[in-house]
Amino acid sequence: MNNRLKSVISAAAIAVGLCFAPVQAADLPHVVILATGGTIAGTGATSTTTVGYTAAKLGVDKMIESVPELQKVAEVRGEQVAQIASESMTNEVWLKLAKRINQLLAQKDVDGIVVTHGTDTIEETAYFLDLVVKSKKPVVVVGSMRPSTAISADGPINLYNAVILAGSKEAVGKGVLVALNDQINAAREVTKSNTSTADTFRTPELGFLGYMQDNKAHFYRMSTRKNTADTEFDVSKLSSLPRVDIVYGYANMDRVAMDADIGAGAQGIVQAGVGDGSVAAQMMPAFRDARQKGVIVVRSSRVGNGIVARNGEANDDKEDFVVSDTLNAQKARILLMLALTKTHDTQAIQRMFYTY
Ligand code: ASP
């Protein structure tokens, strides 16, 4: 064969190779799925059982196996971090999860993380991770509202989209994301808004960040608050978190629950207050006693939207209280726990509430 013919044949071979080359596994993003349980791993007695099922039954490998499409969009592997319904989530599981995520994201061969989780406390875990993950690589927390055995289960499509999102360039640097029902939310802002419907996750008033559509992430906005690698929190050496409790505001409330919390060792109290975090007249002595003992008092609101105004419904400067800004009580509790690992200074803590 002359040289000219040889080069024509090899050019043709390259062209055929290019046209028919399958997507190489090496080209796919490497995503690790860390499973914690929840309804996404739940099973029910029949395909129409959508309440009264058992959460946290399927192991991570079974979950991955049940969505073979994942193999086309990422190099996926799984680890079981916990197997619980998320109403039973604890600070200890959070610390274990955060440390594992930080180890994995420090590796060159990991591009993103998906955390599978129950939906009841998904917003809390996501916000905790948003404050303590030390990487700009994507972390996506996902769950489902219907168990894996249900007709029209939402777990498989939610998991599929979460893996695409976690492996996407678009999600880099956006903070921890909560993605279900084709919608992408910021951890700081998302909340569960309905006990049972598939569209339960909302970022009320401020709106979600974007959509999952046609195997792609589409972003339209970002949270302005600092997160992940830009925070001052470091859990690498922590084995527990300071106790912080929530006191719910309602007509005719009294100080019994709050005094019990402080008696049990709470270093901080978050009031999920009525309205703009208002403090009932009969509660003010209890809050003052708490401050006398060095317990940090944060005023948040049970309303669900809006800023708790500093020096609005209470003289926070005089009473030495902190306001939660727009954080709901369950997220204010998380930020206060982490703040207390650094300081008991109320001005420093107030700055953190305006930063994260
Ligand atoms: N109770 C369940 C859980 O949070 C609900 C769910 O996952 O949707 O684990």
Automatic annotation (TrEMBL):
Signal peptide span: 1-25
Positions of the L-asparaginase N-terminal domain: 30-222
Gene Ontology MF terms: asparaginase activity
Keyword ATP-binding (UniProt): no
Alphabetized SUPFAM superfamilies for the sequence: Glutaminase/Asparaginase (SSF53774)
Keyword Hydrolase tagged: yes
Asparaginase/glutaminase C-terminal domain location: 243-353
Active-site residue list: 39, 119
Record's keyword terms, sorted: Hydrolase, Signal
InterPro entries (UniProt xref): AsnASE_II, Asp/glu_Ase-like_sf, Asparaginase/glutaminase-like, Asparaginase/glutaminase_AS1, Asparaginase/glutaminase_AS2, Asparaginase_C, L-asparaginase_C, L-asparaginase_N
Pfam families the record matches: Asparaginase (PF00710), Asparaginase_C (PF17763)
Gene Ontology annotations of biological process type: asparagine metabolic process
Superkingdom of origin organism: Bacteria
Residues annotated to bind substrate: 86, 119-120
Family named by the database record: Belongs to the asparaginase 1 family.
Protein name in the entry: L-asparaginase
Source organism of the structure: Paludibacterium purpuratum
